[in-house]
Specification:
heterodimer; A: 427 residues; alpha/beta; D-Maltodextrin-Binding Protein, domain 2; 2 domains; 13-stranded mixed beta sheet; three-stranded antiparallel beta sheet; 37% helix; B: 284 residues; mainly alpha; MetI-like fold; two-stranded antiparallel ribbon; 2 strands; 1% strand; globular
Amino acid sequence: MAKMNGSGVGRRRILKGAAGLAGAAMGTTIGAPTIWAQNNKNIVLRQFGTGVSAINEIAEKAKKDLGFTIQMTALDSDACVQRAVTQPNSYDVADIEYWMIKKIWPAKVLQPFDVKKLTYFDKIVPIFTTGKLKPDSVIAQGTAPSKVGFVDKIDSTTFAAGQTGWFTMVPTIYNADTLGIRPDLVGREITQWKDILDPKFKGKTSILNIPSIGIMDAAMICESAGVMKYGDKGNMTKAEIDKTIDFLIKTKKEGQFRAFWKTFDESVNLMTSGEVVIQSMWSPAVAAVRSKGVACKYQPLKEGYRSWGDGLAIAKHLSGSQLAAAYDYINWYLSGWCGGFLNRQGYYSAVLETAKSNMSEDEWGFWMEGKPAKGDIKSPQGAVMEKAGAVRDGGSFYERMGAVACWNAVMDEDRYMVQKWNSFIAA
Amino acid sequence: MTRTRNWTTYFQVTPLALVFLVFLVIPIVTIVVVSFFDYTTTSIIPTFILQNYEELLLSPVTWQTYLQTVQFALITWALTFLIGFTLAYFLAFHVRSSTWQQVLFLVCTIPFWTSNVIRMISWIPFLGRNGLANQTLLQMGLIHQPLEFLLYSNFSVVLVYVHLYTLFMVVPIFNSMMRIDRALLEAAIDGGATGWQTLTNVILPLCKPGIAIGSIFVVTIVMGDFVTVRMMSGGLSASVALMMANAMSLLQYPAAAANAVVLLIVVLMIVAAMMRVVDIRKEL
């Protein structure tokens, strides 16, 4: 479609495509897409992001539904922050985590969304707007999305205290992380974060070596073990950092850890090969271990989850038709197809209502409501992930996201924390 | 006459000088300048402060890490030298036919046809707790518990270094050995020297340039490495470059730059020391 440069035919087809999308997927009529769709076939939106959400199927589907091209680049978390801040003209859409935006926003490389132009803004899960999943929920520690979700004015460099008309980032994917275990090898009940310190697992545990996330898992463990209590795990004081790292060094010297992992595949290999039996893990890594026929459980723990959220932000340099295309893309993202796709991978989507209509009843029941699967549960690519009768580890959406203890975070004492983290790795 | 020749010389060195200027001098100067900058979580502030160096040099972690890295470099150097020298000696003096010399030399390079990273990672399943090495030993009844130190330890780091970099020793030493006039060896034997005496008094001194070149390769690579340390120690050990990578990942470029400058000075001192022992240019 993009190759057809003859204006008449291309334009008609795009218009038809856009109209079809507006009718079928969105249900409501949106003014902007049809106007801009006239010349959007040549538009290319360059998007970079973490590997989590750089999904080819989404780019392909977007091309089909919207007519323009999304170019995705996958980077690791650290590289994402670097790219966003140091090469602001190299991307149009930034697919980043909420803790990253705390670092990136003050660099004035992004522009906020006008919530009036976001079709599904009112339907976004309230974690990202008010911060409260249910009216009586408490906002978790760390860089909770609602704390960095809004700015007062289009050019503010600091975040607003509450909800405003300027949204820094539109949430796309999020989840609640916990420890993964090998149920066949642990040989005991795992119920708390501190269970990773059991002398029985000496030399058979791992935590992740990404300082900003690793320190959070460490804090969950320390607090659970009664080593200390934190004011805010997501924003520790120097003394808290010292004590946490000292405890980690002591544990490391005692030989409790087998290794520290930094990438997704490392965590999968450690678990599959039996090098470790309990470790920090990400949800799709657990699925990857299981798909190799090795038992692996994403163990819910008493103290709660460490949560993370990804979203799309737009570069400051976007304007005119490109900016409109970015809004179209993001409205499309929330319109259901992506949501269903992501939910079926074990992540959560930002607008549940639209995602539900893109999933079967059994899929919705298994992934979102914690019900036993009636038939085989398949991944979006068609591979069987769970057999009939299986129940999702941790249960329903509300059970899991309702038990978030802290969010991935950037601390004010970031600089000090990294020095200390280096000392832990060097010890 | 002399004047024109001078101009020609300058003209001839210009291209290389320009390449060095653009790709070596300017980047290094930039690193040095940035190492005095201040930074926050989101920005780098051009100023002149010594805090980056203070934080670096006054921290015991830095010293520990440098010590660890130097230790890796020393052990790796000693092992690659022993293995490399033996291999080169065998190729140069025991293999008589020059065809076989060529063939065997090529055989040595075969591992280099795949990537560094692949060669490194393939050790992981081999050395793991349930890996081939442990399973074989267990089945042979030599051990009753899997040997944990095989993987994710300093042992595995050094093992991989030696595997990856021994060829850097073999090639220059082999090259030096091939230049040795065989008449000298005959003279030594005629003069009544034993095999060992010939080795230590004739061959070794004549191989010095090759050894020095190989050593520079191995030591500089190990001093600046971070992938091997991270992958093979499972993140349990640190290296200087790993410290820099950690700092950069949090946008702390000035801190990383300061560390880079210090590392550069340390490595240059090591290389200078080697050059003092062996004048490479004179002996080539």
